[in-house]
């Protein structure tokens, strides 16, 4: 039934196809992933925005609870959000506005309104809904750092707009300036994972302005309303993060657990309100909101620079044009349902990392204590879900938007310089050490090996090397700096089961850490060689072979190992183990992207390796809902069974991605799940980020053109792919037959034409 409702909504959503030819943005359905385990939300505004604007159905900044779930039936307001789309983390620095006619209601649950589902129109650039109980037709749109809302009264009555500070710790303030006719506020940001709950050293700030003068104001905390009071500081409870029921990230966890939580926050909520008496039916109030991570003054500057007037339609049109500019870098000619899935995936893959610097370049110092830095001539980014996005999202951006990727690399390097260590999973402009591995290094290396320049590679190398060889102090480790378990890794070449890290969110996972560090080290070795540092190259290339120390030669599977070299027993590769990250030994056994030929040899050669991959898929051990599986289907290429890569990649595209709210198999993880689809649908995937080549799969469309930023065009033709042909019989690059299963990054970005000759079967 939900799918039917969603398709009805899509049909009702106005697009340019009603008035002319459809454009790429018209095929995007932002409600995809808002049910089941996608953990997305209808993020409205522009690509890579500092703040996205969304309807809110769940109050508060609660870990693993997205602002919006499709199953919810009431809207509590419209949020300026910094939620990491598709994740199991808390929102931060967010503010919510809720309009209504009639009696004033302040708390999120009390003010919530039923809405006409058929009126809900979600696009990347705007959202529109009829709030039945509130008596308001609401519309929202946004720019990079600011937002705009238009509220239209559906009947006569006294109007109000409630402004809520969603601070996770119940701190901060909201202030009404009656003379200036504006509302301002500060939302302190708190860390997660390393330093969980501690103040992050910066806040989010906002300034709210209205197209019509308000005549009265007040402050509130929960249901306690104080008329005529212009300022509210905190919610009155002791400050700090309140615990909630555990919400897991794994499939079957986050959305299910969130659904069992009340829609109310763990805190009462607080803020201010403004009143607009005697509203007439059809009368409109336009609201514009500036945001910044530096100050109220910077939020006001951002607003003035990005939204100069009250023309909502013009801002919406600019947001639409911004999305069209990004999405139309890829032109899919096939008129088939998969086209909608593709552009929705591309939309999700273009939300993060987020812009963090203001229009004048100001941004809070990384891991700082209130200091302000300045990004001169580039955009500073944050919220890198790096354990996820190094795999496909960043390799996608190196093709579609290399200049932006360079700014992201510059941002990573600056974080390392300001904080002392290259961050492993930078979010909340802080160290987190969330997840395992050290893949910021790989993202920098990948960009450099692809010829991207404009950043200091020598400074980057110093930071990368420090992470790989310097054991952080206990205090640094608690703060999220450096590699966890590095001391044992340096001594033994693997992390033994005795190494338990109590202060970490992922407290064990020793074998996954070892495998991921070995991959990182191998890539560091290639960078060292490219920079002429041959002693380092040899050191890290040797360390790149540490995967062999945790793959048991008797069983052929990744396996827990103790300090004395003995293996854990018994060990079932099909069951969850404390020493594996968010997966199974079955999956992590195949995480040796730096040395796939060596892995094949260790498994007994091509036939044995192919048979083992068959057992993984046939046994149901592949899990596309989480990242450790994402490269596995492509490994058949290396064992001479490319037809099976094509078979499984196409099956995954068709089974794990749907044009419906429950259309994602797992957390989208800042666009990684979606970026996998984008690259795979084009016909290739980068199995080894850090090595500038992509492995062939099975293209999804007959006719695609990638408009490269250099002005060149890459035409991808695969006649019959759109109607279901999945097997590739021959590949031609600019008229010449391609030998092997890889194509270099440089061939892709040079433009030209790739022709896949497709067949319905492998015979």
From TrEMBL:
Domain Glycosyl hydrolase family: 298-759
Organism field: Granulicella aggregans
GO molecular-function term, one example from the UniProt record: carbohydrate binding
Alphabetized UniProt keyword annotations: Signal
One Gene Ontology term from the biological process aspect of the record: carbohydrate metabolic process
A Pfam family this chain is assigned to: Glyco_hydro_92
One CC-aspect GO term: cytosol
Leader peptide range in chain numbering: 1-19
Glycosyl hydrolase family 92 N-terminal domain segment(s): 27-292
Keyword Signal part of the UniProt annotation: yes
Name of the protein described by the UniProt record: Putative alpha-1,2-mannosidase
């Amino acid at each position: 039934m939900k799918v039917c409702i969603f398709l009805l909504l899509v049909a009702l959503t106005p697009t340019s196809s009603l008035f002319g030819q459809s454009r790429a943005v018209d095929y995007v359905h932002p409600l995809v992933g808002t049910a089941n385990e996608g953990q997305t939300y209808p993020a409205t505004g522009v690509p890579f925005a500092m703040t996205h604007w969304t309807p809110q159905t769940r109050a508060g900044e609660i870990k693993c609870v997205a602002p919006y779930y499709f199953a919810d039936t009431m809207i509590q307001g419209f949020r300026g959000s910094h939620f990491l789309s598709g994740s199991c983390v808390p929102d931060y620095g967010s503010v919510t506005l809720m309009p209504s006619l009639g009696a004033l209601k302040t708390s999120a649950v009390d003010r919530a309104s039923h809405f006409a589902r058929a009126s809900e129109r979600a696009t990347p650039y705007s959202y529109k809904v009829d709030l039945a109980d509130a008596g308001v037709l609401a519309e929202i749109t946004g720019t990079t750092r600011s937002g705009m809302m238009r509220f239209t009264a559906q009947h006569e009555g006294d109007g109000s707009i409630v402004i809520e500070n969603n601070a996770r710790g119940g701190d901060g303030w909201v202030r009404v300036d009656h003379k200036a006719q504006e509302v301002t506020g500060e939302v302190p940001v708190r860390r997660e994972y390393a330093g969980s709950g501690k103040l992050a050293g910066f806040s989010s700030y906002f300034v709210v302005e209205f197209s019509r003068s308000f005549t009265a104001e007040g402050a509130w905390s929960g249901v306690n309303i104080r008329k005529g009071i212009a300022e509210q500081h905190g919610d009155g409870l002791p400050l700090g993060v309140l615990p909630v029921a555990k919400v897991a990230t794994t499939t079957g966890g986050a959305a299910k657990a969130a659904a069992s939580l009340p829609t109310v926050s763990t805190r009462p909520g607080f803020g201010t309100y403004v009143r607009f008496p005697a509203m007439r039916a059809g009368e409109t109030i336009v609201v514009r909101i500036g945001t910044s991570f530096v100050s109220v003054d910077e939020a006001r500057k951002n607003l003035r620079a990005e939204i100069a007037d009250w023309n909502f339609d013009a801002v919406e049109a600019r947001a639409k044009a911004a999305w069209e500019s990004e999405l139309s870098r890829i032109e899919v000619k096939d008129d088939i349902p998969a086209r909608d899935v593709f552009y929705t995936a591309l939309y999700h893959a273009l939300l993060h990392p987020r812009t963090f610097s203001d229009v004048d370049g100001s941004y809070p110092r990384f891991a700082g204590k209130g200091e302000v830095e300045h990004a001169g001539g580039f955009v500073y980014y944050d919220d890198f879900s790096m354990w996820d996005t190094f795999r496909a999202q960043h390799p996608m951006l190196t093709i579609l938007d290399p200049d932006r990727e360079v700014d992201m690399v510059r941002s990573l390097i600056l974080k390392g310089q300001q904080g002392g260590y290259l961050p492993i999973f930078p979010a909340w402009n802080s160290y987190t050490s969330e997840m395992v591995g050290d893949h910021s290094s790989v993202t920098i290396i990948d960009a450099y090996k692809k010829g991207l320049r404009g950043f200091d590679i020598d400074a980057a190398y110093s930071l990368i090397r420090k992470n790989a060889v310097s054991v952080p102090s206990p205090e640094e480790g608690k703060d999220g700096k450096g590699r966890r378990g590095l001391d044992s890794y340096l001594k033994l070449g693997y992390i033994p089961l005795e190494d338990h890290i109590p202060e970490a969110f992922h407290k064990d996972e020793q074998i996954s850490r070892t495998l991921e560090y070995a991959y990182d080290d191998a890539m560091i070795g290639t960078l060292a060689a490219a920079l002429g540092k041959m002693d380092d190259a040899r050191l890290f290339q040797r360390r790149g072979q540490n995967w062999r120390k945790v793959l048991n030669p008797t069983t052929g599977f990744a396996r827990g190992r103790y300090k004395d070299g003995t293996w854990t027993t018994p060990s079932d590769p099909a069951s969850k183990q404390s020493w594996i990250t968010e997966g199974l030994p079955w999956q992590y056994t195949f995480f040796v992207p730096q040395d796939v030929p060596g892995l094949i040899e260790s498994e007994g050669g091509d036939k044995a390796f192919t048979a083992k991959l068959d057992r993984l898929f046939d046994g149901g051990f592949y899990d596309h809902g989480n990242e450790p599986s994402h490269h596995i289907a492509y490994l058949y290429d290396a064992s001479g069974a490319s037809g099976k890569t094509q078979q499984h990649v196409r099956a995954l595209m068709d089974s794990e991605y749907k044009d419906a709210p429950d259309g994602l198999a797992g957390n989208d993880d800042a666009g990684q799940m979606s970026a996998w689809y984008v690259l795979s649908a084009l016909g290739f995937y980068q199995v080894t980020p850090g090595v500038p080549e992509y492995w062939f799969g099975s293209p999804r469309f007959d006719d695609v053109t990638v408009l490269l930023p250099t002005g060149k065009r890459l035409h991808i033709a695969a006649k019959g792919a759109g109607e279901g042909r999945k097997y590739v019989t021959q590949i031609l690059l600019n008229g010449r037959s391609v030998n092997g299963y890889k194509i270099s990054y440089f061939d892709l970005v040079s433009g030209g034409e790739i022709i896949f000759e497709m067949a319905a079967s492998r015979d």
